[in-house]
Each structure stands twice: as C-alpha cells, then as structure tokens.
Amino acid sequence: MTDQNLSRRRFLQGSALVAGGAFVAACAPVAGDSGAAESDEGESMSEEPVELVAQYWGTRPEFIEDREILAQRMTDKFPNVTASQNSVPGGQYGEKVLTAIAAGTPPDTMQLNHRWEPFFRGQEALLNVIPFADADDEFSFDVFYPRIIELGTTEGQLVTVPRGWNPFVIYYNRALFAEAGLDDLPTSWENDTWNWDSFLETAQALTADSDGDGRTDVYGMFFPYWYPFLRLGGGDVLSDDQQSSGLDSPEALAALQWLADLRLTHNVSPTPAEIEGLGSAQDLFTAGRVAMFTAGAWGIGALTRVEGLDWDVGPLPRAAGQPPVGYTQYYGHGIPKGTQSADWSWEYLKIISDEESNITVAQTIGDVPAMRHIAESEHFAGLPKPPTRQVFIDSAPHMQVWPTIAPITEIMSRAITPELNLAFLGEKSVEDAVAAAGPQVDEILAAFWQK
Amino acid sequence: MLSRQAQAGQDADGVTAGKRPRMSGIARKEAIAGYIAISPWLLGFMIFQLAPILGAFYISSTEWRILSAPEFIGVRNFDKLLFNDDLFWQSIKVTVIYVIFRVPISAMLSLALALLMNQQLAGRRLFRTIYYLPAVIPLVAVSMMWIWIFNPEYGVLNSLIRVFGIEGPQWIHSSRWALPALIIMSLWQVGTGMVIFLAGLQGIPAHLYEAATIDGANTWQRFLKVTLPMLSPVVLFALVMNVIGSFQIFTQAYIMTAGGPGNATLFLVLYIYRNAFEWFHMGYASALAWVLFVVVLVISLAMLRSSEHWVHYEGRVGGA
Fold first, then answer.
1. Cα A224 to Cα B262: distance, rounded to the nearest angstrom
2. Which of A98, A274, A427 lies closest to B153 in CB terms?
C-alpha cells in the first residue's frame, strides 16, 4: 500500500517536475537536462515574468530586513523575477510549509535546520541540490566548511545549501570570574585540562550566595541544552545502528548523571523553579545571575548589544577519555519538490547562500557563516567582540550535529524529554528515566524502519 | 427562490405524505421559509463543522503525514490508542481527573458567588464586575500571570503559605502538583458560571419565596426546596457546558507546563495537538479527536438523560 502511494506521489511530483521543466524548455533557447541547473547566469532561462517566494521562519526585524535585501538582489540580477519572502513565526513553520506543499503551491526555496531538514527529507519533500551544483560553474561546495557538507549528506543526497552554523560554546562572565579569582577560560578545544572536573570546580567557585540569605544569587552554570553534554560524554540518544535507544550506554548514563548532579547534588545550576519568570539563559547571564551558560553562536549578537557586560567564550569542556566535541546546529535553504521551476529556485538559493549573504550572517545576524573564508575573515573572526571569536571557528574539526534520522523530533519530545525532565528535577533516577524512555524510543524507531 | 417555494407548494398539494399527517400548503410554505431563514447557519454548520468532523473520521482510518496521500489502515489507529499507547491513557487519566475535580468545585463556587451577589449588598455591581473580570482576560495572559503566582520561590501563593510556616509545593515544577495547580487556576474563572447562575436566580419569582416563608420554611429549606429546583435547568446547562469546556483544556498546559513535568499535565487535546502539529501524525490525531468527541458526547447525553430525575422545568406538566 505504501509503495503504491509512494509511487503515485512520485509520479505526481515527477509530473510536476516534467511540467516545470517543459515550461522552462518551452521558453528557453537551451533546455536543461531533466530540470537540472543552467550554468550561464540563467541567461538560458525564461524571460517571462516569474514570481519567487523564499520561505523562512522567524520574524525579527533584522531577519526581515536581511531577507528583503536577498529578494531585491534576486530581482536586480534577473529583472523579470519578482522575488519575495514569506516569514512566519517559528512555531508555525512546519504547518505552513506542509500545507503549502500539500496544496500544490510550495515555496520556491525553504529554510532548513536540524529540526526541519530530517523531517522534510524523511517526507521526500526536498530536491537533491548536488546535480544543480554540479551543473553550475558559478557554484562550488568547496567554499563551505567540508564537515557541514559531509554531515548533511545522506545516501549521496544533500538537500540543504548551508548558510550559517551555530557552534555551541561556553559563554562566561569575565567580571564574575575575576571576582572569584579565576583565570579566563582556555581557548583550545584540544586542551584536556579544560574538562568536566575543572568545569565543575569552576562552576563551584562561581556559585555564590552574595547576600547571605540562604538562597543562591549567582549560579556557576546553566545548561538549557543537555544534548551537547551527552555527546561530549561519548553518548547519544540512539544506538550506532539507529535501531534502538542509545541512552542506556554507560557513557550516556554517566553524562546524564553528571548533568543531573550539577543541579541536584552540587547545586551549581539552577532548577527550572529557581529561575522561572527570570527569562532565558541569556537574560540570566546578562543579569549576572548565571556565570556560565551554553548556547550557539546566536548569543554573540544579543550579548554584544549589552553595554558594560564583560564576557567571553570558551570551548565546551572535554569529558574524561573522550575527544573534543564541537556540537553545532547548522541551517541553510533547500528546494521543495514541485516548485514552479527548480532552476529558478536554484538561482534564488544561490543568492541566499552566496558570499554577500554569508557576510550578513556574520555581521548582522551574528552566527558563524557557512563559508569558511568568510568566517575566517575580518567579517567574522576579525570582529572585536568577543575577543576570542576564534573559539567558534576552531570547533569546526570537531563538529558534531543533532541526529539526522527523520523521526528525531518525535523521539526527543515524545519519548525522551518528559522522562529526562523528571530526572533533572530529581523526581526520578537517571537510570529509571532512561529505562522508561527506552521502549518508547524503540517503538518510534521500529515504526519508522518498518516503512 | 420564489420559484422553488412555489414548486414545493405545488408538490405539497399533489403528493400524499405516507404515514405522516399531510402538511397544508401554508404549513409547508412556512416550513420551507423556515429552512431558508436558517440556511446561512445550516450551510455554515455543514461546510465548516459537519464536513470537517466527517472528514476527520475518514482521516482517523488512515495514516496521513500530509505530504503523501492518506493510506487507509482501517481501525489500526483506534487499535493502537486503545491497546498500545500508554500516553493516550495517561492523557485520558489527567483529563478525567481534571474534569472530575474542576467541574463540581467550580459549579459550587459559582453558585455560592451567585447567591452572594444576589443579595442586597453595597457595591455588588462592582463585585460582580470584579468576579467576572477574569473570564474576559485572554487565557494566554492569565497563564503567564499564574506562572508567577505558582513560582515556588517568589510566587504569591507560596509566600502566603510560608506565613503559616509551611514550605509550599513546587506546583507546576512537580509532577505531583502540576495537575492540582491547573485545577486551582481554573477556579479563578468561576465568574462565567456565576453570571449564568445569577441570571437564573433572578428569574425565580419572589412569590415562591413568600409562599415558602408563610409556610414556615427557613432559609436553608427555601434554598433546598425553592432555589435549587427552580435553578436546576440552569445548573444542568452550566454543568454540561463546563464538562465540555473542561475536556478541552489546552492553553494552560501548552503554555505553563508543556504537558509536564513528565507527562503529568498531558491533557488529551494537548496530545492531539502534538500528534497533529508536532509529529504530523494526522490520522492518529484524528482518531484521538474522535475519541474525545465520543467521550464528551456520551457524558453529555448521560447528563441530559439523568436530568429527568433532578431538573425541574416549571412549564412542564407533571414535571419532577
């Protein structure tokens, strides 16, 4: 039954592609081979008026402005093209894009990240961009961090052209470090003296009840994300063959226990109740209530705007006997199947991911650009704040990402997170939480692999 | 339209209508005019409610992830949720507990408030407004406010409890207290029920109380023998609406607890939402929605059926 449906869908998608290709072929002097890309600046493409829509999530003013510029640049390059953006709040992204694709009116390009790439790829809703790149002399994947391309490629298919990445680091408050008599954090990811033991000692030295009322006023560290630490400790949520839960491995159990202990035994990290209503990790950090926290490069933009805050970044601490792990979340853009013209989508995608766009990522948005030479240039590495920006870039050789299996969101939010939250609240032991999550993870995986 | 009416009128004259008593031409015309008059609502109902409900029933027998065509799988979704999904039963459990506690407690509080507000008190208009006010504040804003009230460290509630030398619970940060917290929070909106009861109370004729007083009934007896029976149709209405509304609890859990800690506040509608819009199992979500529909329907019918024994309709001959 599934096969029948799939083949029908493929047939429809194929028809749409063929129809799109035929349209382009009819209008263009030179037809592309089976809808793949043209190479000569789109000169062979239709001169007919075309309207293109790029789909994004997030509606912050700087995002909207960036996307308007990208659309304008597309129109400048191809005068017959009216390019625009469609930006929706993050929470509505999946519904919005899914319904648009299902209705037969997909956007021409769409934003993708660790959350959405596995899902839409699992739905076979995205085109492989490699053939477009191969057919296009203007474009080369060599300018991007090779590890991002490598991690994003599954079974010879790549669906996302990366634009930026967010390596996770430790943000720390230098003033609080100085008060506690601590040196600045090391900057090398390979340095094994910056490990979980020294991290805990540092956090303990920073944790303080400054007014003596019996309540902690400054917490040494805050971890809004447990996943990077799981990876640092050598564990993962899935087994290596992705057939079952991996949380019951000794490494995973030890890492989760260590995290729970930070909060419940060592009291260096606040419980959700203690910080409720006080804002995000970043807000707590800015207010001086938290001395260290983990986040991606997105912290740079917000923290730079805070006047008088003396902060810097350091690498994630290594776990004993484990290699350094540069956990990162990358994002980029892809082409949904069934767009009006995949060639036009590719042209738009190229602008969204080009050098100028990467410079915007570095300077305006504050993430690390996916293009290596831009990241390492004055546009990112050369900026003054924080002084040790190199830490972000140096994580590249150790890059690791969120699991790429299609049902990962369901695995996390249905099976794992509710149980781990109980463990981090101290209502359940880590072993019990992992034991309760395991069968649920296995069940979701079994249903997935059955297809 | 006119021609249709005319045609219908002709039919009415010419056709014998089986067992039913034959409608006169005028009655027929009136009936048709009636249907035409309600047709905007009827069409709206059929297009925007009935069709989606029936559509959801079809979808509930499929596996549908939106992009691929729905795949017919018969009753497998229902089979899974009944026999193979602990989270479904967890969501039923917390929803039912919520309904069982919330409905009677809020009904009693609403009634008590309505009785109080029905007295000749100074400033009662002001108090009525104050009690009703929470009902008009958007639930999202209410939820944000209650997050602060329930804050174990700095919240108003635990600060009050601390006055008595007791350390309050962790409320929404405890899998044991999160559900009671949301029940307590729901009582903040008893003003809606109060207004309905108040309207009912004011519809009770004063002569009934006068007669009861002359017969020597005391306040309590007047309440039991006059107020309650006369109010019973309103009580029925309020209870049915309250039960339906309580089964649909979503916003608070979505905003305040995200269904947690653990799955302590994973209400059925939240679980439906997650299946549909987080994990995109539309077929399964539709099956869950139908279960909710059937549960609410059965309970509502049971309440209406039971009402014969305890609801007093003044106008009815030989009523209870």
1. 17
2. A274
CATH, range B79-310: 1.10.3720.10
Number of residues that this document lists for chain B = 320
Q: Does a structural domain hold residue A33? A: yes
Give dist(CA A287, CA A270) in Å, integer: 14
Per-residue pLDDT of chain A (451 residues; tens, 9 = 90+): 333 344 444 444 444 444 444 443 333 333 333 344 444 444 456 688 999 999 999 999 999 999 999 999 999 999 999 999 999 998 889 989 999 998 899 999 999 999 999 999 998 999 999 999 999 999 999 999 999 999 999 989 999 999 999 999 999 999 999 999 999 999 999 998 999 999 999 999 999 988 888 888 899 999 889 999 999 999 999 999 999 999 999 999 999 999 999 999 999 999 888 887 778 889 999 999 999 999 999 999 889 889 899 999 999 999 999 999 999 999 999 999 999 899 999 999 999 999 999 999 998 888 999 999 999 999 999 888 898 999 999 999 999 999 999 999 999 999 999 999 999 999 999 999 999 999 999 999 999 998 7
User: What is the residue extent of each domain of chain B?
Assistant: 2-59, 79-310
Q: Are B198 and B128 in contact (CB under 8 A)?
A: yes
Residue A39: helix, strand or coil by DSSP?
coil
**Domain CATH for A126:** 3.40.190.10
Q: Which of B66, B153, B266 sits opposite A98 (nearest CB)?
A: B66
ipTM score of complex = 0.83
Q: Which residues of A touch B (CB under 8 A)?
A: 1-2, 5-6, 8-9, 94-95, 98-99, 101-102, 119, 123-125, 215, 271-274, 276-277, 407, 409-410, 413-414, 418-419, 421-422, 425, 427-428
Q: Which residues contact B123 (CB under 8 A, 6 or more apart)?
A: none
* Cβ–Cβ gap B261/A271 under 8 Å: no
